[in-house]
Amino acid sequence: MRHPLRHAALGLFALGLIVVSVFLLERERAGLEIRPVPLGPTPVTLYQQPGATGPAVVIAHGFAGSRQIMQGYSFRLAQAGYRVLAFDFEGQGRNPVPMRGDVTKIEGTTVYLMAETRRVIAAARALPGAPEVALLGHSMATDIIIRAAKEEAEAGTPVATVVAISSFSEAITPDFPPRLEIISGEWEGMLRGFARKAAEQVVPEAKEGTLVAADGVERQTVVAPHVGHVGVLYSPAAITAARAWLDRAFGRESKAPVDPMGVWLVTLFTGIVLLAHPLIALLKKGPGFIPLPRRRFLIATLAPALVTPLALAALRVNPLGVTAVFYLTIHLALYGGLQLALLRGAGLKRLHGKAVAFFLIWGLGVFGFAMDRYFINFWPSPERAGLIALMLCGTLPFMLADAALTEAGNAAFWRRALARLAALASLAGAVALGDQDRLFVVMAIPVLLAFWLGQGLIGRWLARRTGASAAGLGLGLALAWVMGVTLPLLAA
């Protein structure tokens, strides 16, 4: 190992980040009873203080989310004495049922999600003491919970109040919901505008960030500073505002400070990624890399990006019960296969088995445990396991070719950047040339970006130490897993 003191210092620093952030994140759930609630195929978790008798709050996540991503609200409301029920919508998290219906129509997918939400509301009302119920949701869920609240009101069982975070629901009218708080992030310009219009339905001269009331209808808009669409889920200002609004509706009072959970999440994942570097340095050094001539690099990068979407433009076969997954697998397989053929095996030498094992333990085990416990679902339901196995047929050649193309992580920055941009452009081209089913391939693009930022950096360090083959194989296995657990399952 070169520079042992430097590696030791980095390792101790990263370990310190992990220990501090885990301690502070675990403190968020300290003293709470957290247990599953049986409700058919829908995964539901109850968060409460032992013996709590307070009102119930049903919490719903946004598109491609899960119960874990809403924990900033779940923990704090439970600590304030509320009984919180958070659940995974169809097709997301660990819910085994694919999202059904036409996602572009109110009478399609929305109807199924409303029905699922109302089943959770019924479970909340069945808690001991038959508590009053409030609803809180983010992004896509704001439309669902508002429509579900309307159906509850029409059925004679109205909910007490609604908190809509990053809302864009067209179901909001001048007189419904009668009690509504809309929270937006400072960087969500369009959604802030929507929130203002919702307040102006009640009082035309309503100002952003104020409470307005007229004819028995109350609306409050809140802007959480310095955050966007995801950051608003961890903003202390947003969580405090939601808790205060619920307290007002139920005649309660909560004063406990809200810690910046998002900061500790970033700290934790930074520590996990950084600690991989000195650990990788302990592995036996593998084969070196062979620089690729510029001409071969450009051909292997650009030709598959152009050919793949054109070659698959007419593909209309989908033997699976869910959309996009089959095409995505075929696309990555052809893209990576063409690159490997053009590279003619350059850079892919002897496989370093211990390096692959390390990546799976660290990149999936440690990283995945932290993701699932503190941020978003990372463990597959049995129904997703088969999809992960299928996606390996595409992700393995795709990531092996990527590792070779980037010269085991040693290529110049412009080459690494061009390789990634070409892959994204190829997927974008597939969406542009495809049918409506192909449109959902676009969901893979943000997953790829996040993957390259996290596991991709670990993979680059691993490739530079042990060779492109080990990193490509490990990254291929990890990418199939990540896509398999995070992409929403949409019924074909």
UniProtKB/TrEMBL annotation:
SUPFAM superfamilies: alpha/beta-Hydrolases. The keyword Membrane applies. Keywords: Aminopeptidase, Hydrolase, Membrane, Protease, Transmembrane, Transmembrane helix. The chain crosses the membrane at residues 261-283, 295-315, 321-343, 355-375, 387-405, 417-433, 439-458, 470-491. The keyword Chloroplast does not apply. Coiled coil: none annotated. This is Serine aminopeptidase S33 family. It comes from Rhodobacter maris.
